[in-house]
Amino acid sequence: LLAGLSDDERGYWLERCRNRLADGRPGCVMLTGDFWPETAGAEAIVLLRDGAEHISTEGLAMVDGLLQRRAVSTLTGLYPQLSGTVIADLLDAAPAPAPVPLNGLRLGGEMLFLAP
């Protein structure tokens, strides 16, 4: 996944990772998992520390050898207050991907669903 990023973006991410947490650990975390079970290829959610209390998120998927961006969202559409403690918690013990309680309508090979 990282190889699919531009040099500029990798540099930006590196700056965020060097924005260290209070305990000296990196200010970033990449969580890989099978977030889209019906899609083959690597997928990840990335959290980057932009400042003392601001965390940005990135969604990535490798599809047919090409890097795709994926939106990172919550079921309610509301983001919790993300801070460096979230990254620290994820570095300590990353949770496994879990099913999302969501249904949709399968139409012509696509899914229609209510988005938050």
Give unreliable regions as ranges.
none
The number of domains is: 1
Helix content: 10-25%
Order of adjacent strands in the largest pleated sheet: 1-2-3-4
> Could you say which overall geometry the principal axes of the C-alpha atoms support?
globular
Number of strands: 6
What do the pLDDT scores average to?
Answer: 89
Main β sheet profile:
4 strands, antiparallel
Name the helix and strand elements from N-terminus to C-terminus, one letter apiece: HEEEEHEE
Give a quick summary of the entry:
The protein has 116 residues and is an alpha+beta fold.
Can you tell me about this structure?
- This is DUF4153 domain-containing protein.
- It comes from Cereibacter changlensis JA139.
- This protein is of the alpha+beta class.
- The protein has one domain (2-112).
- The chain is 18% helix and 28% strand.
- The protein contains 2 helices and 6 strands, in the order αββββαββ.
- The strands form 2 sheets. It has a 4-stranded antiparallel beta sheet with strand order 1-2-3-4. Strands 5-6 form a two-stranded antiparallel ribbon.
- 9% of the residues are buried.
- The model has no long low-confidence stretch (mean pLDDT 89).
